[in-house]
């Protein structure tokens, strides 16, 4: 679809198109457009899918379909926009979603029972890794054979040069997300050294996935400036070091209403019968969900109040209020947020 946007000037504007390749890695390219009478049109575009694991050379064109745009924090205000796209093949005048276009599938789910207004708050954990050419190093920043951080305990929400590395990097990411208009609700240093987290939300439905992907893109692009790599690997270091999750907080008008706590229990009961279905789309949990390091056992479904070692955690504040939200702690840090949020909504509200 084409997106139209009203701006004050008719000068050239940079559009930075963002999409997912055939391995669900982020890609981007730029184009300059010239508004007419203050109206900026963001049109469908295309790219060479044979270079992104999505097509053969003899039929390589893949369609970029703009679905959301945000002020681009890497350029002066009003002169550039980040354009998030989903991707399609065009055949016989029909558009067919690419294999990694999970957004179009999620949107079909979220278009059902829109009156429930599903809210999501997503906690994205990640590691800042040492730069090793074009490859992601196996070691988080400042780890080496000679220098091994002390045991976990001092790093979570830590302060000071002994426990925190590159705070300036994560704070700049925070500021850039706000400048882009994303609903980033906070950041903090995490349990393992050089592990951080940012939170997106609360967002309604499909927009949670949109905003998380854009926040990931900004994070990766900023890593170029600071000479580091970003790892969304769920378990870059073995026990006793914590892995990284994509903890997803979820509520609807039913759980936020007067009978909210009872509805939360009903939702959890439904989820208990779909555990394997969720694990299948929750990223690579083969090493992370091992029943330790603040995780549940991948083979067992569990829930509890205030327990970060359970599949589903009900915050203690929700028990006191008798309504609110719950946290699904199973999604891994590399999971696709469209798949995570849509299956939560489907299996609690549509089944």
The low-pLDDT segments are none
The CATH topology of the largest domain comes to: Creatine Kinase, Chain A, domain 2
CATH class annotation of the largest domain: Alpha Beta
| Tally of individual domains | 2
Reported for the largest beta sheet, the result is: 9 strands, mixed
Number of continuous helical runs: 7
Distance between the termini: 31 Å
Supply the CATH superfamily name of the largest domain: Glutamine synthetase/guanido kinase, catalytic domain
SS strand fraction: 25-35%
Helix content: 10-25%
Secondary structure tally: strands: 17
What does the average pLDDT come to? 92
- The chain-level structural class is alpha+beta
Secondary-structure element sequence? EEEEEEEEHEEHEEHEEHHEEHEH
- The CATH architecture of the largest domain can be given as 2-Layer Sandwich
Shape: globular
Task: Evaluate the radius of gyration.
Answer: 21 Å
Task: Describe the protein.
- Helices cover 23% and strands 31% of the residues.
- Strands 9, 10, 11, 12, 13, 14, 15, 16 and 17 form a 9-stranded mixed β-sheet that branches. Strands 2, 3, 5, 6, 7 and 8 form a 6-stranded mixed β-sheet that branches.
- α1 packs parallel to α7 (337-350) and α2 packs across α3.
- The longest helix is centred in the middle third of the chain and has 20 residues, at 207-226.
- The two termini are 31 Å apart.
- It has 2 domains: 3-100, Glutamine synthetase, N-terminal domain (Ubiquitin-like (UB roll), Roll); 110-350, 2-Layer Sandwich (Creatine Kinase, Chain A, domain 2).
- The radius of gyration is 21 Å and the shape is globular.
- It contains 7 helices and 17 strands.
- With 351 residues, the protein is of the alpha+beta class.
- It has helices at residues 102-110, 167-179, 207-226, 260-272, 275-279, 316-321, 337-350, and strands spanning 3-6, 13-20, 26-33, 39-42, 45-48, 61-71, 80-91, 94-97, 119-132, 135-140, 184-189, 195-204, 229-231, 246-251, 303-305, 312-314, 326-328.
- A hairpin with an 8-residue loop joins β6 and β7.
- The mean pLDDT is 92.
